[in-house]
Design brief:
By secondary structure, the chain is mainly α. Among the domains are: 47 residues; 47 residues, no CATH class. Helices cover 48% and strands 2% of the residues.
């Protein structure tokens, strides 16, 4: 009997909750569209180019109109790209030649270099991934220089050069 009363009360409460807006209405909040995302000129010109390409493919835009719009939007995109390239990014200062040389030296110190192929992209390279040459210029065991391009053992101590 108690279960029937509780079930009826819950059903009436749910029905009231669902039907209340139908009979009494609700206060409507005005819907405000969010402001459009601020794009830079280059992005908006590229988006416009994509849209006119889609419109031409779907038959909504004639070939003559497409050619005219494409020329205009392409020129806008090119002009915007040139302006972006000409202006330095905000907060970036130009590096001096000495600073740039220091950055290049630090990069080269981190990466092993092959005498024939140049710097290797792998940080822990022991052999060149292109020609197979041993990249370490000294034996790890005795410190003797390794000059032979295909050396597998140190000529001074006989230790294996790489695992």
């Amino acid at each position: 009997m108690i279960a029937l009363v509780i079930g009826t009360a819950l059903a009436i409460g749910a029905l009231t909750f669902v039907l209340y807006p139908v009979f009494f209405g609700v206060a409507r909040r005005p819907t405000v569209a969010p402001p459009p995302a601020r794009e830079n000129e280059r992005e908006s010109a590229v988006v416009a180019l994509r849209e006119i390409e889609f419109d031409r493919e779907t038959g909504k835009l004639s070939d003559a109109d497409y050619a005219q719009l494409k020329a205009r939007y392409t020129q806008q995109a090119i002009d915007a790209m040139r302006r972006e390239d000409a202006a330095p990014p905000a907060g970036v200062t130009a590096l001096s030649d000495a600073d740039l040389e220091a950055v290049v030296r630090a990069y080269r110190a981190q990466h092993a270099a092959c005498p024939t192929c140049g710097p290797r992209p792998e940080l822990d390279a022991i052999y060149c991934s292109t020609c197979g040459r041993y990249l370490r210029d000294r034996c790890a065991a005795c410190g003797a220089p390794v000059d032979a391009p295909d050396a597998r053992y140190c000529v001074s101590c006989g230790d294996r050069l790489a695992a």
